[in-house]
Amino acid sequence: MIARRQLIAAGGLALAGCATTGACAGRVIVVGGGFGGATAARYLKLWGGAAVDVTLVERDEGFVSCPMSNLVIAGVRDLASISQGYGGLQAQGVKRVRGEVVAIDPVAKTVRLADRSTLGWDRLVVAPGIDFMFDELPGLSAALDTGRAVHAWKAGAQTLSMRRQLQALPDGGVVLISIPKAPYRCPPGPYERACLIAAWLRRARPRAKLLLLDANPEIQSKKALFERAFAQQHAGVLEYRPNAELQQVLADGTARFEFEDVKADVLNLIPPQRAGDLVREFANVNRRWVGIDWLTMQAHAVPGVHVVGDAILSASAMPKSAHLANQQAKLAAAAVLQLLKGEAVNPAPLVMNTCYSFVAPDEAMHVASVHQYDAVEKTMKAVPGAGGVSPAASAQEAAYARGWAENIWADTLAL
Amino acid sequence: MKAWFLLLLCAPALAQDPNAGRSLAASCANCHGTDGRPRGGTMAPLAGMQAERLLALLAAYRSGARPGTVMPQIVKGYSEEQLRLVASYFGSLPVAQARP
Fold first, then answer.
1. Closest Cα of chain B to A260: distance in Å?
2. Separation of alpha carbons A144 and A204, rounded Å
3. Which of A89, A156, A169, B97 is the most exposed place for a label (fewest CB within 10 A)?
4. Which residues from A are below 8 Å from B27, CB to CB?
């Protein structure tokens, strides 16, 4: 135990809670304060208590939720209503470091921050989310940098920017939403966004049009339900075209697709995605996603480093959702605590998913699934016969969607 | 000493992971609140609910006797043993107090 204390002191971080108990199981650094990282930090502390030292490193001051952010874009609620602080986690004993991790050293077991400081760990949990792939899309990065285009696929400043661009839209103007090829974060998100913007256009800019161009051959989630909303509620405003992949953005803002050039007043171009930059060297699947062991969420390529959320190679039929990032983080937290104590990990973990989508400001629908660990194939498998979608969008499910958001935020951030 | 020895022998047969109930119940927390104590009035509190009562509710969702939106679909993804572990865990907690 003395050796452990000396090690901790050498780590350079003040570790009062753990070091003074005399029963320190270990130090865990969690990088990234989104749904995955914040939940990991919360549950490591909830289940590990004083015996585990938990530090959350996040570059942003606060948390802004991607789920419900399409309602902000459509003017139904404001950004403050989907923003939260990290004070709840700190009150639970999670140490908070505001900074950006720029390098992970799995041999020395440290992370280095942009300010050149380092933090030591016994186990590392990384939840870097997604970053964008611009290589095969000339002009897109520049269009996003200048503000001519927005992605609004990470909530916060981009969400507000897209809202402002919509408010500046002239009646008779055109809004373009471009969807990248799957897999991408939040499969139903672009279709929900299109529905909510169409509902707003009908009321506020009745002569405007929305073009939804999808690189995929069909709607990627809740297909029949979105098709119904497109054909009924949003007919005449929203036009959906599959098999339309963005190729280039020209200097004058023209969005070039394989078969057409599109000029629009609001360009919402959602780029193709991969695991966040921080874990790029661990992204062993197509150099794009991090392959993990589903019993522990440990990266295949890096012992001691657990990765959760949108950055991982999702199991079959498992979307990249906030709900699943939260569930994976709990799986990781349980495993990390067991590994720190030298105990066996849960041999039969389970995660489940519920995603609500709004098709109008007061109408929502869901998709749900349950995924059990398959010991033979060493992956998570959706349980046949379980899960499903709503029979129809409804006001009742809109109330559930709001209740879901309130509860997952509280569960994730210890509010 | 004898009791300790017996516990070691029996534990793996009862549940391979001593935290199985707690971890399974955490999969409910996204909607029903951490440890079954939800925010707002939309979702049912589960903390402190008698295990037999919760199991009966879950069985009614599974059979279709009780209507619902998400619950009838996801309850079918859990084994009977997993549902028992979840219900025992929530039953072991103090009753949830209403929270705004």
1. 41
2. 26
3. B97
4. 327, 330, 350-352
Q: Do residue B76 and residue A402 have CB atoms under 8 angstroms apart?
A: no
Per DSSP, the three-state class of A63 is: strand
The structural domains of chain B, with segments of one domain joined by +, span 16-92
The domain limits of chain A are: 2-131+274-347, 134-271
Rounded (10°) angle between helices A322-340 and A35-48: 40
In angstroms, what separates the C-alpha of B53 from chain A's closest C-alpha? 22
- Chain-chain contact of B38 with A407 (C-beta, under 8 angstroms): yes
* Cβ density class A51-86: b for 16+ within 10 Å, e for less: bbbbbbbbeeeebbbbbbbbbbbbbbeebeebbbeb
Residue range B53-71: mean pLDDT, rounded? 98
Hey, what CATH class is A2-131+274-347 in? alpha beta
pLDDT 10s digits, A195-242: 999 999 999 999 999 999 999 999 999 999 999 999 999 999 999 999
Class of domain A134-271 (CATH, top level): alpha beta
| Residue B49 CB-half CA count within 13 A | 21
Output the CA torsion A121→A125→A126→A127 (10° steps): -150
Which pTM was predicted? Answer: 0.93
Of the candidates A221, A224, A198, which has an alpha carbon nearest to the alpha carbon of residue A355? A221
The matching CATH number, chosen from 1.10.10.10, 3.40.309.10, 1.50.10.20, 1.10.760.10, for B16-92 is 1.10.760.10
Quote the ipTM score.
Answer: 0.92
